[in-house]
Amino acid sequence: MTPTALPLYSIAELRAIEQAAMRDLPQGLLMQRAGQAAASAALKLLHATEDGDAGHRRVLVLAGPGDNGGDALEAAAHLAASGTEVLVWLAPEAQATSPEREQALSRARNSAARLMEAATSTASAAVGAAPWHLVIDGLFGIGASRPLDGECRDMAQLVNNLDCPVLALDVPSGLHADTGAIDGVAIRATHTLTFIGDKPGLHTAYGRDHAGEVEVAALAIDPTLLPAAKAQLGGMHLFARQLQPRQQNTHKGSYGSVAIIGGAHGMAGAPILAARTALHAGAGRVYIAFPDTPPAFDSGQPELMCRRAQDVDFSGLHFAALVAGPGLGDDADTVELLQRTFESDSPLLLDADALNLMAAEPELQSALAVRTGAGATILTPHPLEAARLLDMTVAEVQADRLGAARQLAAQLGVIVVLKGSGTVIAAQDGSVVVNNTGGPALATAGTGDVLSGLCGSLLAQGWPEWEAALGAVWLHGAAADALVAAGSGPIGLTAGELIPAIRKLINALSA
Predict the structure, then answer these.
(1) Rounded distance, CA 301 to CA 61, Å?
(2) Does the annotation flag 311 for ligand binding?
């Protein structure tokens, strides 16, 4: 059975879904469903961490002024009815802002839960002094339009210092649901129960640090009200059809030749890492085209063929894929070398110095635009490289990673892999996938070169460009995750260690 897609919905899309659903439902029913789902999730967490008499479980519920606060109040009433000790901290201006929230507030007041106004002098002291078993964050949801401030900011900082699970409702307060950006302070949750549909901001930028484990509560919304998502969460199901056992009657030519173009003086390690990865990921033959005099061979991987770039024909007759940029440098002759790769009709991946040269030399971008009718092109920038290409600051790119990746893909007519926490893969038509593997173990020199070599290898083996980009990013992160799980990270993991781990993973998945 083919796995289903894991859609990610924007705030605008979720608002439209919610409004359409509420037209056919009794007033307040969606909020009641959210509160019940939140209470069930909370009880599950309490039972998982229970270390004493169930009657002494203490839960702190943070209720904000909007519908997210209403969800939290409904959850508080349900938890109090279960025998849980509940304290509700009512944020400033937490008066009822809708009939639904007014009903939720009334139910919480009529339950066994204790309600405490944030403005009271003893509120923060009471929260900080108690030994909590769980905190439920219902301060601000997807409708928040300003950073946490005042008492809410102080409470978020207090909660972030507590030693107990934190369950965020819909999104952690202070985290932007579309982008994963934060402005100042945000709740750092261990778990997020997100409503109706998943959100991209939970999986990229600060999202992975603040959302914790994410679970979707669909709230029994009619599936016909859910539009086709423009973004989705990555997964093996997006490229699994390419992972097939190899046939017996094949040879090295069956799996393509890759050329890695790079390795200026003092930077030979970058293309060597990429080339070794391409070989271990299954390419039939791998060449390294050096802009300067090449070494006679790679003593650590003598199967690689080292050539002088000026002597290499980059046409599709010779190479099934090209990877340009690792350690390429920025000499004047390098621009001409890069233009030669653009003239090839082979699939082309551009990384590192190739991207910096493109940002500095507008004619290269024009040449790339002409190439769109030829072989596929994939760009793999980190945020600084993307910022240079978009004439933005890094902060602007990171403030909206999906938007930046989409803009760059449309601007250059390419597939963009915007690296970082929750790597974003964007196609020219605006389709986006947010990758869900990898982590801080990859925050070390050379891992980007490994990724470029892996993607080039998959392209050479005939993977379609979109699936090659998705597969390379997912496999790269999953290999790092496997090493971390085995105790080889995240601190101190090196790029070279990824290479055999990637080979092992590909073989396991292709068996």
Answers:
(1) 58
(2) no
449 annotated among ligand-binding-site residues:
yes
What gap in Å lies between CA 259 and CA 313, rounded to an integer?
10
Q: Is 170 annotated as a binding residue?
A: yes
327 labeled binding residue: yes
Q: Does domain 6-46+55-227 have CATH number 3.40.50.10260?
A: yes
413 is in an annotated binding site: no
Write out pLDDT tens, residues 16-28: 999 999 999 999 9
Q: Which residues pair with 192 in a beta bridge?
A: 168, 214
> Would you call 175 helix, strand, or coil by DSSP?
strand
In the sheet that holds 85-90, the strands lie side by side as 114-117, 85-90, 58-63, 134-138, 166-169, 191-195, 213-217
382 annotated binding-site participant? yes
| 334 labelled ligand-binding | no
Locate 284 and state its tokens. Answer: 């039939």
Torsion over CA: 440, 171, 435, 466 (sign): negative
Residue-wise DSSP of 466-478:
HHHHHHHHHHHHH
373 is in an annotated binding site: no
Which residues touch 68 (CB under 8 Å, ≥6 apart)?
A: 138, 139, 140, 141, 142, 143, 169, 170, 173
In the chain, residues under CATH classification 3.40.1190.20 are: 236-244+251-510
- In this predicted model, what pLDDT tens digit does every residue of 210-227 receive, in sequence order? 999 999 999 999 999 999
On whether 141 is known to bind a ligand per the annotation, the reply is yes
Phi, psi of 398 (to 5 degrees): -70, -25
**Ranges under pLDDT 70 in the chain:** 1-4, 50-55, 94-96, 120-126, 128-129, 372-374
Residue 419 labelled as part of a binding site:
yes
Q: Is 68 annotated as a binding residue?
A: yes
pLDDT score at 374: 65
pLDDT at 93: 74
DSSP 411-472: HHTSEEEE-STT-EEE-TTS-EEE-----GGG-STTHHHHHHHHHHHHHHTT--HHHHHHHH
Class of domain 236-244+251-510: alpha beta
* Closest-CA residue to 82 (of 45, 40, 52): 40
Domain with CATH 3.40.50.10260 in the chain: 6-46+55-227
pTM over 0.70: yes
Residue for token pair 């440098």: 329
- Residue 227, Cβ neighbours under 10 Å: how many? 13
420 annotated as belonging to a binding site for a ligand: yes
How many angstroms separate the most distant Cα atoms in the chain? 82
Residue 190 in marked binding region: no
Is 450 within 8 Å of 499 (Cβ atoms)? yes
- Is 436 annotated for ligand binding? no
423 is in an annotated binding site: yes
Residue 210, classified by CB atoms within 10 Å of its CB into exposed (0-12), middle (13-18) or buried (19+), is buried
